[in-house]
Amino acid sequence: MALDYSLSYAQSLDLSDSLKSYRDQFIFPQHNGKDIYYFTGNSLGLQPRKAQQYILEELEDWGKYGVEGHFQSRRNWFGYHHFLTDKAAKIVGAKTEEVAVMNTLSVNLNLLLVSFYRPHGKRTKIMMEAAAFPSDHYAVQQQVKFHELDPSQHIILLQPRDGEHCIRTEDILAQIEDNKDELALLMLGGVNYYTGQLFDLETITKKAHEVGAIAGYDLAHAAGNIVLKLHEWNVDFACWCSYKYLNSGPGGVASIFVHEKHGNNPDLPRFAGWWGNEEKDRFLMKSEFIPAKGASGWQQSNAQIFSMAAHLASLEIFEQAGIENLRTKSEQMTGYLENLLKEIPQIKIITPSNPKYRGCQLSLIALDKPKELFKFLQDNGIITDWREPDVIRVAPVPMYNRFEDCWILAESIKEFYS
Predict the structure, then answer these.
(1) How many domains does one find in the chain?
(2) Do 101 and 69 belong to one domain?
(3) Which domain holds residue 305?
(4) Measured between alpha carbons, how far is residue 185 from residues 111, 238, 294 in Å?
(5) pTM of the full predicted structure?
(6) How far apart are CA 313 and CA 6, in angstroms?
(7) In terms of Cα–Cα distance, which of 242, 237, 226 is closest to 102?
(8) Less Cβ crowding at N or C end of the chain, within 10 Å?
(9) pLDDT digits (tens, 9 = 90+) for 8-65
(10) 387/301 same-domain check
């Protein structure tokens, strides 16, 4: 049966969408007095309407209680992270004690690398994507140098095959096997920021463990986007931010996952901080560091209350909607947009077509006047994301985007090239 490319069909999909009401829980920037068409939730998610309320409540309690707000505020600051942990753990498929909400992404990545990159003997190498997000490269390079090793000799960069944009799973597995005696750590982005490729984390983790390596992931573009099962997949560690798909504000608080097999090992090397000490003894002011159980033992400083308040507002929505339900809609909506874009000869999609290997992001190469197209969309209230040298990233986020938004985007691209 021929695909229906009409606006009325897109609107019918929106009417039957069981998650359509969640759109109303977010604030959309305006363009000429109307909601913009927002396709950059993979860069910065929209603001939940409750975020302002929750932040204002913390400001009120600060004014009312001062320092006593640590224990007397309506959500006590001393244990504020506990209001978030269970909800965050559900999103990544973890046990509650395996997750800690803390710090920011790059800080957490470096803290985890301190614990999990432990080069010894021949086993000194880290494997990562050649096209990983720059901050991942910075962290890995500096960790290698910290151990007085040469990054050019001790970092293995995974490349796609000539003429391809994404890295095949079999090629990753083959590289792990080829370096099995020297590989200390595999460190990938769960979803590649540039291509939108979702890696087969379960299979890759299993292979890394087979050769005696640690498997860890930067899930900045995966958390809140796909269904993750970090505990079940036996992932060693992971970290992610909250300001993309998790809609928790610019520079929002980040999170870590440490599998329980590591989290309850007090002898595992780490950089220690006050908030990572055993909670019941925290205000006894002892000089000896006794790490809290689980991922909490990697915490550093006091909870970031205002950032966490925004995060709480978003996590409550995720708990109501359910990550599995969002993923189901995501696959349908992204596939719908893909079909619309395939009808435009000037557009090449470099994100995998198989839903198993992508989230809700599609990375587009405009074969003619790419920057002009990006600017045209922007001038018409359609917000996408430009990445050098020639990629426009679009993300139909299931929490707040509509099928009609996807139709408008495709029609606007057709208009540009007409």
Answers:
(1) 2
(2) yes
(3) 57-319
(4) 15, 12, 21
(5) 0.96
(6) 36
(7) 242
(8) N
(9) 999 999 999 999 999 999 999 999 999 999 999 999 999 999 999 999 999 999 999 9
(10) no
